[in-house]
Amino acid sequence: MNQLSVDHLLGIKDLNENDIHLIFKTADNFKDVINRPIKKVPSLRDITVANLFFENSTRTKLSFEIAEKRLSADILNFAASSSSVTKGETLIDTVNNILAMKVDMVVMRHPNPGAAVFLSKNINAKIINAGDGAHEHPSQALLDAYSIREKYGEVAGKKVVIVGDILHSRVALSNIFCLQKLGAEVMVCGPTTLIPKYIAALGVKVENNLIKALQWCDIANMLRIQLERQDIKYFPSLREYIMLYGVNKKILDSLDKEITIMHPGPINRGVEITSDVADSGQSIILNQVENGVAIRMAILYLLAGKIITN
Amino acid sequence: MEPIVLLNNKSFELTIKRLCYQLIENHNDFKDSVIIGLQPRGVFLANRIKLELESILNNVIINSGKLDVTFFRDDFRRRDEVIIPNSTQIDFIIEGKNVILIDDVLYTGRTIRAGLDAMLAFGRPSKVELLVLIDRRFSRDLPVQPNYVGKTVDSIISEKVKVEWKEIEGEDKVVLFNQNVQKK
Lengths: 310, 184
Fold this sequence. Notes:
The complex is a heterodimer. By secondary structure, chain A is α/β, with parallel strands linked by helices. In chain A, 38% of the residues lie in helices and 15% in strands. Chain A contains eleven helices and nine strands. In chain A, the strands form two sheets. Chain A has a five-stranded parallel β-sheet with strand order 7-6-5-8-9, with helices on both faces. In chain A, β1, α2 and β2 (74-79) form a beta-alpha-beta unit. The model of chain A has no long low-confidence stretch (mean pLDDT 92). Chain B is built from five helices and eight strands, in the order βαβαββαβββαβα. Chain B has helices spanning 9-27, 42-57, 110-120, 166-169, 179-183, and strands at residues 4-7, 33-38, 63-67, 98-106, 127-137, 148-154, 159-164, 173-178. The interface between A and B is medium-sized, with 26 and 22 residues.
């Protein structure tokens, strides 16, 4: 099992359990590397990576960028807002122009589901999906599961509830696939309007009552309400949503066990979680960010290892 | 062809003892010296040397670490499979110390080159020496020479030298076998 079964990281759905464990094992070593005085290793010194962000991002973009730098790769950064995309260029033309500059790997975020798959079929470079619409966000799911493994020793047998806007969330879908492949039980919780209709077919539990969901789980992964993706009103008011689905310290303290709080960021403090929860000892939100760099280094390293030179 | 035994249990033990006395000649009480075994199999030799030195020197604790060189190798993307790293553990400061790098077999010298690079991430030692149990001379790709050698072997590319350990294989010995024959 020294090799990933895939040539690109398009989604968790394509990975098998061995792939995920291999990424985790490799990330363990990179976590060690990024905590040394000299945090850089030369593995990717002859690789060029293009970071194509057709949608806004802070954490993921910075995390990939620092991971690439720690591996000594050369980097091209591209943001759609300041590019020729606004002049009407197609995705393939944009990317082919970038590849003509001899790029080996592409990290892409795009608002359209399937954009990464489309690219992988049409261009000759390793593709890493950094989020495609409401479809998948594999590196986030891997770092979430890795953070659970770090805290609990293993993911198998854990009960994880994903709370919030499941309908518009790529993090939710990738997390469901990843956690299930590792043997965890997954529940989604939120207002019915924000839960996809047939999600139970994926083998997840569905719960509308936040307290019941929190009583059931070991870990709660809190998602942001993605107002930018909501074209209609899915709930009467944000205030009502906060009352029914916002987690505060009082709720956490009322549970008969100590659960772990995760959040993929960006946090809307006072909406899905209050500040005292986000900053409490039960939250591993900043561990997730640190682990994100190690996980992304592992993904880049393992995929780059498949670009064989002669 | 049967594997040829280069060092048997008895000569293995004697060789390690001799290497330790050679180290003591140059490093006295190891006050400013540390040993670092290269992952994966140099670590077994480093552990053995540490134990032996401590039993000879009495009341001396030898600082010993293990170093993984995977991310510093020069054959990344030149093999069919990605090399999966092992752990690195160096819990002491190597800045200004005399470092003794330890590996089981010295062959092309490329692992040692990577080891020197990997080690520099932990500081600037005042001096670095190399100790190997087996030196396969005449097969070097890089100008690397060991300071302490257990046994020197003349071998050809198709042959492989394997150091076996009591902890892993059940017996301490060094064997030389023909890779092509072994596969059948």
